[in-house]
Each structure stands twice: as structure tokens, then as C-alpha cells.
Specification:
Elements: E1 4-8, H1 15-26, E2 32-35, E3 58-61, E4 64-67, H2 69-79, H3 90-105, H4 108-113, H5 129-149, H6 160-174, H7 181-191, H8 194-205
Parallel strand pairs: 1-2
Antiparallel strand pairs: 1-3, 3-4
Helix pairs in contact: 1-2, 1-6, 1-8, 3-6, 6-7
Length: about 220
């Protein structure tokens, strides 16, 4: 058994948990998955037992605790330098980090109005101009990267940048936010992954409802 433990929450909703989980799975890095259910009624108070921010995901490696999705991905890239978690080319690596940080700190309208939800029926709803602006920027990023790399992922092979954008694939599909061919192309590559399908099936099978993430 690996010394790595990844603490996650509900697979139906937890976009931040999906990111390091799918990276670990795609790259074949062994880890122990530890589930801790969301509890809206207490503000997820029980997360304080393992997370300084009371948020998930959290990676535990022996005595070390790493929190925040992007920090976990960076740590994994350092710990497993041969796994290809960042592109080999320096310029591509810099760009991958730029768009990963843009995803980490931006697209607030999309996050707020269109929560990740594996069980949601694919159905459009009225969204703000801010959401449309966010989606246009995401599609531009995907198009630029795929045209330069040739795909199927943003920098050819799956990397941390793809892990960061994975939840957006769900959001765009579930809320029918774009019919651009580049979205179909990239989304197909992502959803064809066995890791994606494993996560999605588990999320759909969960019985719990997090009302604040239903839209």
C-alpha cells in the first residue's frame, strides 16, 4: 500500500477533489483514497481534523500534509518527476502553469452559477454574461493549446493542466454552455479516460444531496 493518502469529499460535487484524484489515476500513481462526506449543516466542521482550511482535497504523505488542489499537483510533480505531470518542454511547462493558475483563481461566475454535478441532467439554464465570458475564455485556452499540441490533451499527453480543467468539462456539458467543436473534441478525450468514467459512475451512485450545489 502506498504511503500517499488523498482525502476527498463527494464525487458528485467536489470539483477540487477531482483534480488531484484524476491526475493520480491517469498517471498510475498508487494512493489510498479516503472519503469524508460533505456536511453543510456544520460547515464541514469535521474536515478540521485533517485540513487547516476545513476544505478538501488533502494529500497526506507520511508526516506531511498538503492542501489545495494545485499545491497537491505541484507536490506530486516534484515527488514523481518521471510521471509527466507537467510538460517536458520548458515553454509548454510555463504555459501549463499559467493556465492552471488562471483556472485555480478565476472563472468565478462559472463556479458560482454552475456547480460541478455528475448527476445533473444535461439541460441549459439562464446564466449571466459573466458565465458566457468565462466559457469563451476557457474555449480560447483549449483551442490555442490543442492547435499547438495536436491533442488529444492540452499539451499532447495528459498533465496537471488537464486535471485543473477537468471539472469544467462537466460544467460545460451539464449546463450546455458551448457547442464549439473544440469543446466536443477536448471533452471527448477527457470523458474517454477510464479514470473519468470511474469517478463519474461513483458520483452518480452517491445518495447524498448537497443543496447548495444543485442548480
Amino acid at each position: 500500500m502506498s504511503d500517499l493518502k488523498l482525502i476527498i469529499a463527494n464525487k458528485n460535487y467536489s470539483s477540487w477533489s477531482l483534480r488531484p484524484w484524476i491526475a493520480l489515476k491517469v498517471k498510475g500513481i498508487e494512493f489510498e483514497e479516503v472519503f469524508s462526506q460533505f456536511d453543510e449543516s456544520t460547515g464541514h466542521k469535521h474536515f478540521a481534523a485533517f485540513s487547516p482550511t476545513k476544505k478538501v482535497p488533502v494529500l497526506i504523505d507520511g508526516e506531511l500534509t498538503v492542501w489545495e488542489s494545485l499545491a497537491i499537483l505541484e507536490y506530486l510533480a516534484e515527488k514523481f518527476p518521471d510521471a509527466g505531470l507537467w510538460p517536458a518542454d520548458q515553454a509548454d511547462r510555463a504555459k501549463a502553469r499559467c493556465i492552471s493558475n488562471e483556472m485555480h483563481g478565476g472563472f468565478m461566475s462559472l463556479r458560482a452559477e454552475c456547480p460541478m454535478n455528475m448527476r445533473r441532467k444535461d439541460e441549459a439554464m439562464n446564466v449571466s454574461d459573466g458565465v458566457h465570458k468565462d466559457v469563451r475564455r476557457i474555449v480560447d485556452i483549449w483551442r490555442d493549446c490543442l492547435e499547438k499540441s495536436g491533442g488529444p490533451f492540452l499539451f499532447g499527453e495528459f498533465c496537471n493542466a488537464d486535471a485543473m480543467f477537468a471539472p469544467v468539462v462537466n460544467r460545460i456539458a451539464k449546463y450546455q454552455l458551448s457547442d464549439d467543436p473544440v469543446v466536443k473534441r477536448y471533452s471527448s478525450a477527457m470523458t474517454d479516460l477510464s479514470a473519468w468514467q470511474e469517478w463519474e459512475q461513483a458520483g452518480k451512485a452517491e445518495p447524498w444531496i448537497v443543496q447548495e450545489d444543485e442548480a
